[in-house]
């Protein structure tokens, strides 16, 4: 495969060594070379070549500066793509803000529902406390009656114990 290299198209007095080269992973050599004094635009060349036994042979193809119309078209294309990219980014950001707004609205509605539930619970608790206060005198009476029943029960046990003693004495006296 014969290719004209950038080094061959430049007179020998103006040639400089290539700046860099890379090896591709598909078995082809990709050479990127730059010639020039370092000032102004640099010429770069790219060549694909099949691997050879002679590693010292390097080929490159001279790159030409694009015409002014090509540069203008490339700039228009770049600005068009940049505008599309920025529009997409702004649209995504706008959608994120809309999503956050919807989430905030839903959260606000949930908190309003929870507030209504809490108000209902509070109202029901007040009603229960009021009913408990109304029942309190009756509960106090029940407690008094319970104490009286307990005292009456103790008296009944004492009476039963006394009656058993009397019965035992009576039986003892009868046997005599």
Automatic annotation (TrEMBL):
A GO cellular component annotation in the UniProt record: gamma-tubulin complex
Origin superkingdom: Eukaryota
Protein name stated in the entry: Biogenesis of lysosome-related organelles complex 1 subunit 2 isoform X1
GO terms for biological process, alphabetical: endosomal transport; lysosome localization
Any one Gene Ontology molecular-function term assigned to this protein's record: gamma-tubulin binding
Species for this entry: Pteropus vampyrus (Large flying fox)
Region Disordered, annotated ranges: 1-48
Biased composition regions of type Polar residues, renumbered to the chain: 21-34
Protein's gene: BLOC1S2
Family membership noted in the UniProt record: Belongs to the BLOC1S2 family.
């Amino acid at each position: 495969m014969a290719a004209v290299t950038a080094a061959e198209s430049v007179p020998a007095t103006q040639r400089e060594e290539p700046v860099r080269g890379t090896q591709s992973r598909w078995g082809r050599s990709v050479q990127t070379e730059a010639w020039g004094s370092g000032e102004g635009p640099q010429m770069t060349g790219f060549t694909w070549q099949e691997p050879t036994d002679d590693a010292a042979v390097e080929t490159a193809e001279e790159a030409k500066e694009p015409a002014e119309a090509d540069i203008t078209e490339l700039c228009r294309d770049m600005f068009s793509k940049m505008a599309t990219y920025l529009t997409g980014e702004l649209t995504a950001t706008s959608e994120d803000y809309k999503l956050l707004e919807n989430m905030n609205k839903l959260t606000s509605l949930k908190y309003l529902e929870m507030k209504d539930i809490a108000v209902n619970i509070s109202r029901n608790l007040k009603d229960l406390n009021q009913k408990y206060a109304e029942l309190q005198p009756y509960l106090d009476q029940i407690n008094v009656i319970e104490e009286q029943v307990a005292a009456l029960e103790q008296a009944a046990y004492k009476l039963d114990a006394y009656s058993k003693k009397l019965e035992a004495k009576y039986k003892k006296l009868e046997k005599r």
